Amino acid sequence: MKVEQIYTGCLAEAAYYIESEGEVAIIDPLRETKPYIDRAERNQAQIKYVFETHFHADFVSGHLDLAAKTGAKIVFGPNAKPAYEAIIAEDGQVFKLGKISIKVLHTPGHTMESSCYLLIDENGKEVAIFTGDTLFIGDVGRPDLAQHVIADLTQEKLASYLYDSLRNKIMPLSDDLIVYPNHGAGSACGKNMSKETTDTLGNQKKVNYALNPALMKEQFMKEILTGLTPPPAYFPKNVLMNIKGYESLDTVINRSTQALSPKAFETVAQELDALILDVRDAAVFAKGFIPKAINIGLEGQFATWVGTLVPDLKHSILLVTEKGKEEEAIIRLARVGYDNCIGFLEGGFEAWEKTGKPIDQVQSISAEEFSDLFKQNPELAYFDVRRRNEYLSEHVVGIENLPLETLSANMALLKKEGLNYIHCAGGYRSMIAISILKARGFDNVVDISGGFSAIKKVEKLPLTAYVCPTSLL
């Protein structure tokens, strides 16, 4: 028996490859099928099943392409109603895979079809559980996402179901089970996941607040529903793609890998009002870019930020990338449903620059320069675009919090006269924010190079953290 976790850091997503006697099951695959098919071919094995723990919100799954290419059967838990052929399993149904078995445990709560898969070895011993978004390491799946697709599925109703699922289906299982979740730290599918991507169920019973046996249902519901931030706008759209189906990724890649000369690139951008998405490193982008281009670098949580900041999945997208990164960018866009990339700039930004076409740059100052400026002029416009919880954890006294995900709705906070100084944690998000602002006509924005990480090292500025009032403890 072979079990392999295939972890994708930019989405904090874990898929699983399980093999026994030449038969393979894949659990929660990403949209690109090659990693799974290649593994099976190397082992001279056949993919028999594609198990889905639920209809994912944060990525488009690869189940349809995998089934089409390998003949594998797609399996969902009870209540699932996909618009394509799939096995809708019963609670407790067992699937044979070589000498091992996979048992379905219906665990509604994150969604109504949410299910876990219990792995049973050739001796009949339960050895692992694949928990999807029902149970994470240190956390559980948020119960508020399904209501964005089906209004009647309120977060209170799903939180109640989740409590029962954990108590009745998960907690009675053996402590030595290995827990394999669908996500780790950084995913928006939970509130406070661990950086660890696997653990024993016994240890989770000790340290995971949601598995505390003393926690009553009302307490559990209050705990799990407190502090939820709005999910990225693309989540319900990805759910619908996973339910209804989608184009083959091969079709998307073939259509999108169109090399455009600078002249053609400019023409297409103007005629289609396309979004110019520059995926180069933030520091490289700052030195020179196409006016009105938006920078979301591939090296960060690229797909998540695209999904958060670009509301229309069908928006035409033109890419500016480093050489050889074009297909990677297209695949990572498609992972979250952005299938309408219409081409990329042939030769990259250097080709654009050589034509003598207009370019733009980002003004920046060092953390040391910022420190001196802030002490002399604390009344100027300074903005911290980190998430609210990061800001509350620690920030420079006097700097206003303007989380990147709320930028479009709060541009009125920026000064039209004078300069606006912006920082995030390390520079990735501040460059996204500045590129958006410049595209909207704000040329008076300055990046604080190195972000809060660099600012802290200066040791000249007063820092503070939010202190919970005693009445709330």
UniProtKB/TrEMBL annotation:
Tell me which residues make up the Rhodanese domain: 273-361, 376-464
Q: Sorted alphabetically, which Pfam families does this protein's record hold? A: Lactamase_B (PF00753), Rhodanese (PF00581)
GO terms (molecular function) for this protein are: hydrolase activity; metal ion binding; sulfur dioxygenase activity; transferase activity
Per the record, the coiled-coil ranges are: none
Annotated GO biological process:
glutathione metabolic process; hydrogen sulfide metabolic process
Q: Which keywords does this chain's UniProt record carry?
A: Hydrolase, Metal-binding, Transferase
Show the InterPro entries listed in the entry: Metallo-B-lactamas, Mito_Persulfide_Diox, POD-like_MBL-fold, Rhodanese-like_dom, Rhodanese-like_dom_sf, RibonucZ/Hydroxyglut_hydro
Superkingdom of the source species? Bacteria
Q: What is this protein called?
A: Glyoxylase-like metal-dependent hydrolase (Beta-lactamase superfamily II)/rhodanese-related sulfurtransferase
Species for this entry: Arcicella rosea
